[in-house]
Write a structure and sequence with these properties.
The structure holds two protein chains of two kinds. By secondary structure, chain A is of the alpha+beta class. Chain A has helices at 29-40, 94-100, 140-150, 162-165, 191-197, 218-234, 243-247, 252-258, 280-290, 326-332, 341-354, 358-370, 379-391, 394-400, 403-410, 432-440, 453-458, 472-489, 496-501, 503-517, 526-543, 556-559, 573-579; strands spanning 4-9, 14-19, 54-58, 73-78, 85-90, 103-109, 118-123, 126-131, 156-159, 173-175, 184-186, 200-205, 295-298, 309-313, 319-321, 417-418, 421-422. Chain A is built from 23 helices and 17 strands. Helices cover 9% and strands 28% of the residues of chain B. Classes of the chains: A alpha+beta, B mainly beta.
């Protein structure tokens, strides 16, 4: 049975199952969301208007037996934050369940005429449209709890918080984690507002009795996933008791601080004196000391063998939030001059409940600090800003729009954005390759789009000097292309670390994709397939009006020297334009 | 001469007396390499992926200077 496209039209609350057309048949995950958005979304449309769509797709290997760490779901559409094409992916429960229903993608289109809120329930029998007045206005913790009470077999819940309902540009899409909490987010780019514009508060996905995933070549899949699994379990970073399993992504806080690349107090310095107190090592220490529900080595989806997530406990050992990531601890911590993990955790809870991307939210608070609304380091005041958003005061609505809107409101010119999206936790003046990724990615400033940090900081996949500019254009492109491929597999991007160092794992990833799909793909094809995806994304952006002038870092980085290295961003426009010259036939 | 050494993440297991981010102060003779300091602290070579000296990448053969801030880093990455 071939994979189906489930097309849900919210204008008349109808749903149809379509055979996947030939032009999309090779794609899954990010490749598929981007192909559909390019084909079906008018690039110049208003992101919140009736001509935008939300596309949801599991990866090539999602839902297959025992493919390790393969629980990512891709969400695509035109971004209200950037105006570009957007793919944002998340862990949690949804990927395998959508795949097991035989679905290649769900396309959510149209908008209800009555302004009502809906809850969609997707099962093997079809789509049920339920009025959801009782869910509207509620935070995601309550929504997830209500829906697991209604559906005791623990379905996936994809939902938006109040920020998505109000269609604010920093609205993420929540996916529930194995505990049934909104701990996982397709956070970046405001796709929660695109879902809100469709009038959908939550989507329940129950795969019971679903047809499952067709597998073209069982032996090849088995061979591939064994190689991949072995690489993950062998590499020091991803093995049990390795860096990620023990400390989570926040293992990076102290290291990036040592490299002088930790953006501090709204990107005004590269080191934070309080880094140790918000680091992954400190999280692990708190978990051990406080006990109770706290844990490290938490898996964000069933079948993950890396398990880099955590549950942060309060002083009594009760869970405050999952998860305090590196990005989260940096955005709400170092970048705001805050060195208190308890406050970082509480603000993370607020983000998860309201439906905010933590990176954009932390950067927004830092802008409010820069603009004099509150002081850097004032953790009580920072936490209180979330009350403004919850109350949807005019000021809260500005914060909910993210960094650029807030910067305009407060007259701030140090604005760390590219294409409208704010930068994550790596300073491009101190780590040049990631700056190339921020500048040129079709997604706006996004570290995951081409994670050159691996060779620039961690010595993974080679070793290059972060302060060196030479070769960084090519390095970024290679990582951007590889990432586009991995984002299409359903595998977590973190499998990239072991397989960059262990070549059999790289082969295994490609073989597992070939085994499931029957596509003629080997490890040698990964970069070229990834570039096909990037080409589609760049084409959408070009049609939406983006030019080379949008592939630039913000002006202040060219004249403000960043301590401790006292470097400015000095890569030339020509070097940046070289990254995507191949899409123009050059 | 004196140098300050930091270890992070899984390498902290070898210097458990240090708080997170706390430096270990070492007296070493002129001409000591970063590799020799690593050996003196009994940090296994295979677990040290990256060395930094004064916030910049360095290698085992590099010579320590008085007042250096030296950091040994195991396998790390994330997002």
């Amino acid at each position: 049975m071939s994979r189906k496209i489930l097309r849900i039209n919210m204008s008349d609350q109808s749903a149809v199952y379509e055979d996947i057309p030939e032009k999309w048949s090779k794609w899954a995950g990010r490749g598929l969301t981007s192909a559909i958005v390019l084909d079906e979304v008018e690039p110049t449309c208003h992101p919140l208007g009736p001509n935008n769509k939300l596309v949801i797709a599991p990866g090539w290997v999602s839902g297959t037996p025992a493919a390790p760490s393969s629980g990512r779901t891709s969400f695509g559409g035109k971004s209200p934050l950037t105006g570009t094409i957007k793919e944002s992916n998340s862990g949690g429960l949804s990927s395998k369940k959508i795949a097991k229903l035989g679905l290649a993608a769900i396309i959510l289109e149209g908008e209800p005429q009555n302004g009502e809120w809906y809850q969609l329930v997707i099962t093997k029998d079809g789509v049920e449209f339920k009025d959801a007045p009782d869910l509207a206005g509620k935070g995601m913790y309550e929504v997830d709890e209500i829906l697991w009470d209604q559906y005791p077999n623990k379905p996936a819940v994809i939902g938006i918080g109040p920020v998505g309902e109000k269609k604010l540009s920093n609205a993420g899409i929540s996916v529930n984690d194995p505990e049934g909490k909104p701990g996982r987010y397709a956070g970046r780019g405001g796709l929660g507002a695109v879902m809100g514009a469709r009038g959908v508060k939550a989507i329940v996905v129950d795969d019971e009795g679903g047809p499952g995933v067709d597998i073209a070549d069982e032996d090849l899949l088995k061979q591939g996933r064994t190689k991949l699994r072995d690489a993950i379990m062998e590499h020091d970073l991803t093995k049990p008791d390795g860096g990620l399993n023990t400390y989570g992504t926040n293992v990076l806080m102290n290291i990036i601080n040592e490299a002088g690349g930790l953006p501090t107090r709204n990107f005004s310095a590269g080191q934070f004196e309080g880094a140790a107190d918000i680091s992954g090592e400190r999280v692990a220490e708190m978990v051990e000391k406080r006990g109770g529900e706290g844990m490290t080595g938490h898996g964000c989806h069933p079948g993950c063998i890396i398990q880099c997530s955590n549950i942060y406990p309060d002083e009594e050992g009760e869970a405050v939030v999952s998860v305090v990531e590196y990005e989260t601890a940096w955005a709400l911590g170092a970048n705001c001059g805050i060195d208190d993990l308890d406050y970082v955790a509480e603000m993370t809870y607020q983000c998860n409940d309201l439906g905010l991307d933590t990176i954009e939210a932390g950067n927004t608070i830092a802008i409010a600090m820069e603009g004099g609304q509150i002081e850097f380091g004032d953790k009580e005041a920072a936490l209180a800003l979330f009350d403004e958003i919850r109350e949807m005061s005019p000021l809260g609505r500005i914060y909910g729009q993210g960094v650029e809107a807030t910067a305009k409101a407060f007259g701030v010119h140090r604005v760390p954005t590219v294409k409208g999206q704010s930068m994550p936790a790596y300073e491009p003046r101190a780590i040049k390759g990631i700056g190339v990724t921020y500048a040129t990615s079709p997604m706006g400033a996004d570290h995951t789009a081409g994670y050159t940090i691996a060779p620039e900081i961690a010595g993974v996949g080679g070793k290059v000097d972060p302060l060196d500019e030479e070769g960084k254009s090519d390095l970024s492109l290679t990582f951007q292309a590889a990432t586009a491929f991995v984002d299409s597999t359903g595998y977590c991007l973190f499998i990239a670390f072991p397989i960059l160092d262990i070549s059999s794992g790289w082969e295994g990833m490609a073989e597992s994709v070939a085994g499931v799909t029957g596509l003629d793909i080997t490890g040698d094809d990964v970069i070229d397939v990834g570039k096909e995806i990037l080409r589609m994304e760049r084409e959408f952006n070009k049609k939406a009006g983006f030019t080379a002038q949008d592939d630039r870092l913000p002006e202040f980085m060219r004249y403000e020297k960043l301590p401790p290295h006292n470097e400015v961003w000095s890569m030339s426009d020509e070097e940046l334009d070289q990254v995507y010259a191949w899409t123009n036939g050059k | 001469m004196q140098v300050e050494v930091r270890v992070f993440a899984t390498l902290r297991r070898y210097l458990p007396e240090l708080d997170i981010g706390e430096p270990k102060l070492l007296e070493v003779p002129q001409g000591t390499t970063l590799g020799e300091i690593r050996e003196q602290l009994e940090l296994p070579a295979e677990e040290v992926k990256v060395i930094m000296r004064n916030n910049r990448q360095a290698d085992e053969e590099g010579l320590a200077q008085d007042g250096d801030r030296i950091t040994y880093i195991p396998a790390v990455a994330g997002g």
